[in-house]
Design brief:
The protein is an alpha+beta fold. The chain has a 21-stranded mixed β-sheet that branches. Helix 2 runs antiparallel to helix 7 and helix 7 packs across helix 9.
Length: 493
């Protein structure tokens, strides 16, 4: 019994010591320069997704809509109002576009285009009767022998490259669904790999410094990575080797190429991409023979582990470049963000400074200042552009002023948030104090809806790829003639 007690005590002590050692090692690893920088950048990018404008844009792209409407009475023969509305649902590969023109309460035009990963369809009853569309899943079956087949030699035959592209569209669209997500994941992977190799090939040191951003004092751990031409050459070789052996990267490049253009073979894009990597590898000897020095200072906040500032000093032969990016404690809530860039020998410099004066429940007030500095024949010239936006969140009054290259612009309107919708009505535009005429009469309205379901593609439509040459020609003729007649009725001379 006594032996068992001792065994339990010893075993418990060993377990506790192992746990303590694990905690100490984990804390130590989390505080290594590599871990600090990787985590700091990742956390900052995550914060950026929480910026309201970014968050709204993400919602709109993945299940929302944007509508623009205007009263065209001053420009048309009759009283007419036009609205264009775009629905987006990128995650589900759905979308739609609607164009509506109304005279009083009567709709004189109601055109719709809707698509998903399987089908696309179009209707405009005031221009053509019925609904027309294409089943993307059946293109491989329907296109050969159709009026679009190059072998049929019709007036509507596609060229060989176009025909090949549309034949493979089913697979292209299928690969689109996760393309944005996969590109982001690949970017994250290579960003992490780059930082790891940068730290590996650099002389690294840690220090402490407190910086002041937007009136806030921010204690930071500064990770300084200094790397010369040999280190840059080794870093470049690591990146090239990693990319050349990355089969997932090759597949992703091919998918991006397949979505990019129909006139070029995706395999050619892949070849060009890896040829470019070979060119970079061929330049490594030149890098080693150069006189290069690069120093990067990562300011990682001690609280929250964010990237508060990034300083870069690059020397190449007799040229020197300095840059600094200041983000503050949390980029999503930043009162001040700035970027500065200067070329030492030429004196050429740029600076961008964004300052939030107030962001409360009542008012949003911010300024953006862009400065460009040039030195020519010992003469320094400086160009400034200043922008200021003030939004009274309760009344909706919005005032945007710009002073760019000695020209002054002003925009006034009303912006209100109603649930998931932002509604902006333009009231006035001025240039150097002179108002642009008829702006208020235009009643230009922009509505952004964060959550607005995309209309479905109609279940039935006339399949365009099955139409014969006469029917398709008649369809095109009716469309052109009726569209022209509608335009002439309201906007013609």
């Amino acid at each position: 019994m006594e032996k068992n007690k001792k065994a339990l005590i010893i075993g418990g002590s060993v377990g506790a010591a192992a746990l303590l050692a694990l905690i100490i090692v984990s804390v130590a690893l989390a505080s290594t320069p590599k871990a600090l920088v990787i985590r700091g950048i990742a956390n900052t990018l995550s914060d950026a997704q929480r910026i309201e404008a970014v968050s709204v844009a993400d919602d709109v792209v993945n299940g929302g809509s944007i509508a623009v409407s205007a009263n065209l009475d001053e420009f048309a023969k009759d009283d007419i109002r036009v609205e264009a509305k775009l629905y987006n649902d990128a995650k589900r590969l759905k979308g739609a576009f609607e164009l509506t023109a109304s005279e009083d309460k009567d709709k004189v035009l109601q055109a719709k285009v809707a698509y998903n990963q399987d089908k696309v369809a179009f209707s405009a009853p005031q221009i053509v009767e019925g609904t027309y569309g294409i089943n993307l899943k059946k293109l491989g079956k329907n296109l050969p022998g159709s009026i679009f087949d190059p072998d049929e030699e019709t007036d509507f035959s596609l060229d060989d490259d176009q025909f090949e592209y549309f034949l493979n569209m089913k697979d292209t669209v299928k690969g689109d669904k996760t393309l944005t997500r996969d590109i982001e994941a690949m970017s994250n992977k290579y960003r992490k790999f780059f930082i790891e190799k940068l730290i590996k090939h650099s002389e690294v040191k840690k220090s402490g410094k407190t910086i002041t951003v937007g009136g806030d004092k921010i204690p930071c751990t500064v990770v300084t990575a200094s790397i010369d031409e040999d280190g840059i050459a080794e870093l470049t070789q690591d990146l090239v080797d990693y990319a050349n052996n990355d089969k997932d990267l090759e597949k992703l490049v091919r998918r991006v190429a397949a979505n990019g253009a129909y006139r070029d073979d995706p395999d050619e894009y892949v070849d060009k991409f890896f040829d470019a990597l070979d060119d970079i590898e061929d330049s490594i000897d030149k890098i080693e023979d150069s006189d290069l020095d690069l120093q990067i200072d990562f300011y990682i906040t001690r609280s929250g582990r964010r990237l508060a500032q990034l300083d870069l000093d690059f020397e190449y032969d007799k040229h020197e470049l300095e840059a600094s990016l200041v983000l503050g404690k949390n980029v999503a809530k930043a009162k001040e963000i700035s970027f500065e860039y200067e070329e030492k020998p030429t004196g050429k410099a740029y600076s961008i400074e964004y300052t939030v004066k107030e962001d409360s429940n009542k008012l949003f007030d911010a300024e953006l200042e862009i400065t460009e500095t040039r030195v020519r024949r010992s003469k320094t010239t400086e160009k400034k552009s200043e922008f200021r936006i003030k939004w009274d969140k309760k009344s909706g009054d919005l005032d945007l002023k710009a002073n760019a290259y000695n020209d002054q612009y002003s925009l006034k309107g009303n912006l209100k948030q109603k649930g998931d919708r932002f509604i902006f009505v333009l009231n006035k535009i001025s240039n150097d104090g002179e108002a642009v005429p008829k702006i208020k009469d235009l009643e230009l309205t922009v509505t952004i809806d964060r959550h607005d379901p995309t209309p479905n593609v109609p279940g039935r439509f006339t399949e365009i790829t099955k139409m014969d040459e006469d029917d398709f020609e008649e369809f095109i003729k009716d469309f052109e003639e009726n569209a022209k007649e509608l335009w002439d009725d309201y906007f013609g001379k």
